[in-house]
Amino acid sequence: MLTFALDTSTASPSLALVRDESPIAELWLAPEPGSGRRVLEAAHGLLVAAGLEASDVEAIVVGVGPGGFTGLRIGLATALGLGQALAVPVTGASSLEALALGIARECPDGAVVAPVQDARRRELFAAAYRAEGGDLSELIAPVAIAAADLAARLDDLGQPVWVGGEGVAAAAGAFDRGSVRTLAGGSPGHRLSATGLVRRIAAGAGVAARPVYARLPDAEVNRLSALAAAEAGG
């Protein structure tokens, strides 16, 4: 089965064409403003490079986050729109779980891995899993959390934890403690691959194609703040 997979939960959207569980073409967009809006154009380029057409796609898999509000909405809208146009199923998969699979490839089997992404507002989107035999067991559910607080929770697990993802750089050294270890800079494990989404589906971990934000969007936070300020002033 040919699957088109995409994840727009990070600043560098990931796209892949996967035959069964093996990637035949992958692409990451540059982390720059508006990258999520170029996903459809990039998908077309990926198909052309692989010598395929949109009609060859038999299924679509999309990362549901957690991630930024705008990025997730763009990815999900793209996936659902393509699914409707091509009359193929659209399935969601956890973005953090896909990243965890990449981290696990650089760790001993059975290791605890913690994928982290920059959530801004001085927080990370993060989770922790035991990665064994190509599968994941959740130890810490996806959450938006300050880097220092996450480091403490990971240290409390009482065993080595390998941390990877773009959030490592944003953590500013918070993971330099106890049993927490970070992947080397430039490691492939820091980059979320859309192929990992397909592997999660194959493992029976598919979810509905609906966004997982892990916290309120910025617009809602600002709205609630304005309401609170108005009530206090009134």
Relevant terms:
single chain, 234 residues, alpha/beta, Nucleotidyltransferase, domain 5, 2 domains, five-stranded mixed β-sheet, 7 helices, 10 strands, 28% strand
Quick summary:
Helix content is 33%, strand content 28%.
Overview of this protein structure:
- This protein has seven helices and ten strands.
- The N and C termini lie far apart (about 60 Å).
- β1 and β2 form a beta hairpin.
- The chain folds into two domains: about 1-95 and about 195-215, Nucleotidyltransferase, domain 5; about 95-190, ATPase, nucleotide binding domain (Nucleotidyltransferase, domain 5).
- A five-stranded mixed sheet has the order 3-2-1-4-5.
- With about 230 residues, the chain is of the alpha/beta class.
- It has helices at about 40-50, 70-85, 95-105, 145-155, 165-170, 195-200, 220-234, and strands spanning about 1-5, 15-20, 20-30, 60-65, 90-95, 110-120, 125-130, 135-145, 160-165, 180.
- The relative contact order is 0.18.
Overall average residue pLDDT: 91
Total number of domains: 2
Largest sheet: 5 strands, mixed
Helical content (DSSP H or I, runs of 4+): 25-40%
- Identify the strand order in the major beta sheet: 3-2-1-4-5
Structural class: alpha/beta
Oligomer: single chain
Number of helices: 7
Q: Give the terminus-to-terminus CA distance.
A: 61 Å
Provide the CATH superfamily of the largest domain: ATPase, nucleotide binding domain
Question: What general form does the structure show?
Answer: globular
Any idea what the radius of gyration is?
Answer: 18 Å
Helix-strand pattern, N to C? EEEHEHEHEEEHEHEHH
Instruction: Extract low-pLDDT stretches.
Output: none
